């Protein structure tokens, strides 16, 4: 087993070693985007300094090197999420693009009387593309109700499955509250009702070991930048048979077999769904991020993150005048709260003045905010680099905010 030396892990993140005004930076916004370890920054630099070339095209050595590295990362992602084939891994620009590619690509399989079930607590990226699909096809969207924990209500879900939905879109972990859904069970139920399943793993990928074959979903999507990798790259995993049926949302170079003015034929997976020059440096950065995660002792990291989250929930509760939303021991990565009747933005600004980075707003989950009957809230979220000192600095700052506002 790999030793768990938290200081050594944190020291790999150069951004975290800075002061903001008088305070050390306390980064509690990993759910929006994670910080990047030096190895990811170095991998991107190395590519631009030594290997920069387009992939899959030229006969020269630099291009061969770039292509090899790019395709190696595809293999790395395959192992990382345990997909059956490397061709099932599509590089996109992020979760948003991945979901749009499915919602667009599946249009021809959807008809006017079809039903699409969408998690009520989903991120807008997992709502709006389905609404657009419904507009194009005449299909109907039905939100999946939540239980008191604000995770998906399995009974209500089973009821909805009696309508034989064509497609089910779920969040693995919600970004607004850190709620965890038992996606393997939900997918199994959806599958027995004959539905195609998509799981949004954007908030799960940095915290859980993901096995897409065990979850057994048709599509699993996530972003590199929330798992210690760079922005500009994401993954669309699809079960080969489902993925191969998607109509490409982007067409052009790289994705074709033959082009003539009498007609064009498309290439095969994965190229068919990767038109144009990809974000090569970001893909290489993602490879370094996977290596970073694989270098960590997984069980201890999980335990560290869970105990930090528990401590965070407990300290917030003890502080008083705090409303927590959907907080429970099963949550992962984030805690959402409001301070008395204070506006979340005011709280956020006063925290920022003390070096604390949290997110305040509707968290791209307006339907969930509506359900909670709030306009927004503050969210503190954690990554592997956070320590108990971060939580203590945050709570001390919140004590000051409370003294100022209440
Ligand atoms: N889904 C969830 C659950 C998310 O947290 C996010 C990012 N906040 C997205 C989708 C969208 O990801 P991206 O902005 O990287 O496309």
From TrEMBL:
Domain Aminotransferase class V residue range list: 27-394
Cofactor(s) needed: pyridoxal 5'-phosphate
A Pfam family per the record: Aminotran_5
SUPFAM superfamilies recorded: PLP-dependent transferases
Domain of life: Bacteria
Catalytic EC class: transferase
Protein name as it appears in the record: Cysteine desulfurase
Originating species: Shewanella electrodiphila
């Amino acid at each position: 087993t790999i030793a768990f030396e938290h200081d050594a892990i944190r020291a790999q993140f150069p951004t975290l070693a800075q002061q903001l005004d008088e305070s050390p930076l306390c980064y509690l916004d990993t759910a929006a985007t994670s910080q990047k370890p030096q190895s990811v920054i170095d991998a991107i630099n190395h590519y631009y300094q030594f290997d920069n070339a387009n992939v899959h095209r030229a006969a020269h050595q630099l291009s061969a090197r770039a292509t090899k590295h790019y395709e190696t990362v595809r293999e790395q992602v395959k192992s990382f999420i345990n997909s059956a084939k490397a061709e099932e891994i599509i590089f996109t620009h992020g979760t948003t693009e991945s979901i749009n590619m499915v919602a667009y690509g599946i249009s021809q399989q959807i008809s006017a009387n079809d039903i699409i079930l969408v998690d009520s607590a989903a991120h807008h990226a997992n709502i709006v593309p389905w609404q657009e699909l419904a507009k194009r096809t005449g299909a109907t969207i039905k939100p999946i109700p939540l239980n008191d924990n604000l995770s998906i209500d399995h009974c209500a879900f089973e009821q909805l499955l009696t309508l034989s939905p064509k497609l089910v879109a779920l969040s693995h972990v919600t970004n607004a509250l850190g709620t965890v859904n038992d996606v393997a069970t939900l997918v199994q139920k959806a599958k027995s009702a004959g539905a195609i399943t998509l799981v949004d793993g954007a908030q799960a990928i940095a915290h859980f070991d993901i096995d897409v074959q065990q979850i057994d979903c048709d599509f699993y999507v996530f972003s590199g930048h929330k798992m210690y990798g760079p922005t500009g790259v994401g993954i669309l995993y699809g079960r080969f048979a489902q993925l191969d049926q998607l109509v490409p949302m982007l067409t052009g170079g790289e994705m074709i077999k033959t082009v003539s003015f009498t007609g064009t034929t498309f290439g095969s997976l994965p190229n068919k769904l990767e038109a144009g020059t990809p974000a090569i440096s970001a893909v290489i950065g993602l490879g370094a991020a996977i290596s970073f995660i694989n270098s960590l002792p997984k069980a201890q990291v999980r335990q560290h993150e869970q105990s930090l989250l528990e401590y965070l929930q407990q300290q917030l509760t003890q502080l008083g005048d705090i409303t927590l939303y959907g907080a429970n021991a099963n949550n992962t990565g984030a805690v959402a709260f409001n301070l008395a009747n204070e506006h979340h933005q005011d709280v956020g600004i006063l925290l920022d003045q003390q070096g604390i980075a949290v997110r305040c707003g509707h968290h791209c989950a307006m339907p969930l905010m509506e359900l909670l009957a709030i306009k927004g809230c503050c969210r503190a979220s954690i990554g592997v680099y956070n320590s108990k000192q971060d939580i203590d600095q945050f709570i001390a700052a919140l004590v000051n905010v409370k003294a100022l506002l209440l």
